[in-house]
Amino acid sequence: MFTRILIANRGEITCRIMRTCRHLGVQTVAVYSDADADALHVSMADQAVRLGPAPVADSYLRGDLIVQAALDTGAEAIHPGYGFLSENPEFVDAVETAGLVFIGPSAAAIRAMGLKDAAKKLMQAAGVPVVPGYLGDDQDADVLAQEAAKIGFPVLIKAVAGGGGKGMRLVENPRDFAEALDSARAEARTAFGNDAVLIEKYIQSPRHIEVQVFGDGAQAVHLFERDCSLQRRHQKVIEEAPAPGMTAAMRTAMGDAAVTAAKAIGYAGAGTIEFIVDASDGLRPDRFWFMEMNTRLQVEHPVTEAITGVDLVEWQMRVASGEPLPARQSDLRITGHAFETRLYAEDVPAGFLPATGRLDLLAFPAGLRADSGVRTGDTISPWYDPMIAKLIVHRPDRASALQALRDGLRATRVAGTVTNLGFLAALADHPGFAAGQVDTGLIGRDIASLTAAVPCPPRDIAFTAIVAAGLAELNAALTGFTLWAALARRIEFRLDGADRMAILRTDGPDRITVALDSQIVDARRGPDGWRLDRQAAPAFVRHGNRITVFGAATMVVEITDPLDRAVAAGPVADGILAPMPGLVRSIAVSVGDPVTSGDRMVVLEAMKMEHVLRAPRDGVIAAVHCVAGGQVTAKAVLIALEPQSDSAHSDTKRHAKGARERD
Ligand code: ADP
Ligand code: ADP
Ligand code: MG
Asked: Rounded to 5, what percent of the chain is helix, strand, coil?
């Protein structure tokens, strides 16, 4: 085993790898960017090396600096985590040239699986079933259209270099083919610098079932399947193992195909073979096809660890340090059922926009595994993936695991940023999901109900006013109140974008009547704290004027000062604001240009998405306050329009809200 390794990553995966290193007695070296100088992964490491400024191109993608850091600190090996350099064969070559060990597959294996078309050809030759389609070099638009017709619509256009659901277009009708091809190519060119595509038959009501494989270069085993069918726009949201409805025959067929695939490229380390499954008629051994291989540790690997009891990172380190495969196929068993869900800082009502913020509180309940790279007080920055944590539950059967997931989500506390917790909780409550009827279209079909806002009960709102008045703590003196006189106090706050008000009235010691718009809530303080209409008060956290209450749902209110409000309500109608922090990709207008409502103005890239900001109204560009390639903060004014008459303002504001869109 190694004495010391460097982990070329950040966030939860780095912390997770370090936990295994500790257990194995291996010392760790972290690397970090300026944005991460105080990050958890840095504080967990035995040593840490600064790479450079926040942008990934200057830090976590600087393979040269990372190799040098490993040499300087005496690390013998580099674990790449996932993302960043994990599937970059040139990095593997650089690591090995420096005399270090790459904890992962060979550069050749990564190259073999790097492009989807080449990988599919290779798998076809090895006898692994692949999705029917066109994998040719001829990329002429007419040829591609003819091939699509031969395959039969609907078809899927995929970037051969694709990943993370980018460069992929579903085409249902021959009429739409040319346009879809253009847009898939454009996206692939920007994201991967390679606009070659392949065409696949689109499998109806598909399930995404992948198999975890592990090799030592000579032998390979599989560690069963994971079902990742719960996806939003081709991105996984909840994963589970084993797959619901899996039969012994199907598992054997998929496991054998996955091991064949791994052996065909002499695979060493942890990898995943992703299959698409036609589940329109149950799970049948002749209805699954190879989609792609991910030559790295997968985000969702913990569900496999839960059901097999294997520490996959430990296996990676053993095999990379020269040990043979730690187990034979016959040693591996499935115990119980596991779910993983990805908790993100994102604004669900705004269309799942990535969010940022300082975490006033981050707390997870007992009874689940929470893999996280942040703590209370840390900041989710605009620079990297906004994942806060992965929550993993493991129970003897699927129903109890799902219940544990629901309970775990309900008891997870995040304050200081918006999150997708409510969406995940709604998904965990979805009856079709509970029945195991999962397919990749489930979330899309029910997106409206899954993202519907949970109304805040008056009880929770009333309690916020009590917190705002400084009366929530058990021993708080009733400041500002005269005990026996019915004195009133007025609290103003903002909730869901609306200004609200509560009147607190003392009705004797330890008793407050809270009047909201049309409701009255009765609050009494007993030995266990406050009760509101007889129910125990929810937990809360206060940071300055921001109060987060963990009641029926996580509710955030901002205590307002009438003076602040007057300033905030000032006209912003002439400015086009950045909806979130990001990188300005391109600017389509210059000063003096006339624009029509809906015209493309700025393309902003934030996290892995592009957002087109359009003109909120007709007008003339007065100023451009950003530059292409520049970083901007949330709410920064990017473009200003010439002012228009006052009466038009309110109309413009209404438009500005709808003017953002995700291309
Ligand atoms: P898939 O490629 O099948 O979508 P994953 O969901 O594991 O598999 O990952 C999608 C891509 O985004 C991968 O390249 C992965 O390494 C990267 N990725 C996913 N989640 C994160 C994250 N939280 N931080 C950094 N990179 C991530
Ligand atoms: P990426 O590299 O972006 O992860 P994949 O090829 O793994 O791309 O596909 C991502 C997702 O797209 C799959 O998990 C599945 O939901 C959907 N998908 C891919 N291929 C097909 C297909 N042929 N038919 C139906 N859905 C598909
Ligand atoms: Mg994939």
From this structure: 30, 35, 40
Q: What is the DSSP string of 277-329?
A: EE-BTB--TTSEEEEEEE-S--TTHHHHHHHH---HHHHHHHHHTT---S--G
Q: Which of 329, 330, 336, 328 is nearest to 309 (CA)?
A: 336
Distances (CA, A) of 267 to 154, 371, 427: 34, 27, 36
Residue of 62, 111, 296, 342 marked active site: 296
State if pTM tops 0.85: no
What residue owns the CA closest to ligand 1's atom 5? 299
Q: Are strands 47-52 and 27-33 parallel, antiparallel or unpaired?
A: parallel
Q: What is the DSSP string of 483-503?
A: TTS--EEEEEEEETTEEEEEE
Average pLDDT in the chain: 90
d(CA 63, CA 88): 10
Check whether the bond before 129 is cis (ω within 30° of 0).
Answer: no
Which ligand does the CA of 157 lie closest to? Answer: 2
pLDDT above 70 for 494: yes
The CA-atom distances, in angstroms, between 408 and each of 460, 528, 552 are 20, 24, 14
Scan for tokens 């806002």, then name that residue: 453
- The bridge status of strand 206-216 relative to strand 575-577 is unpaired
Q: Is 534 a catalytic residue?
A: no
Question: Do strands 535-536 and 539-543 pair parallel, antiparallel, or not at all (unpaired)?
Answer: unpaired
DSSP secondary structure of 439-478? -TTHHHHTHHHHTPPPPPPHHHHHHHHHHHTT--STT---
Protein residue closest via CA to atom 20 of ligand 1: 299
Average pLDDT over residues 615-637: 86
Could you identify the residue written with the tokens 């985590």?
81
| Ligand 1 pocket, residue 209 CB under 6 Å | no
Residues 200-223, mean pLDDT to the nearest whole number: 95
CB 416 within 8 A of CB 356: no
Residue with tokens 């990095």, as numbered in its chain: 91
Ligand having the closest approach to the CA of 291 = 2
pLDDT by residue (tens digit) across 93-119?
A: 999 999 999 999 999 999 999 999 999
Backbone angles phi, psi at 76, to 5 degrees: -95, -20
pLDDT (0 to 100) of residue 434: 98
628 half-sphere exposure, CB direction, 13 A CA radius = 9
Return the half-sphere exposure (C-beta side, CA atoms, 13 A cut-off) of residue 41.
26
CA of 235 to the centre of ligand 3 (A): 8
Per-residue pLDDT for 654 more than 70?
A: no
The helix (run of H) or strand (run of E) holding residue 432 is helix 431-434
Do 489 and 515 touch, CB atoms closer than 8 A? no
Is the shortest distance between the CB of 234 and ligand 1 below 6 Å?
Answer: no
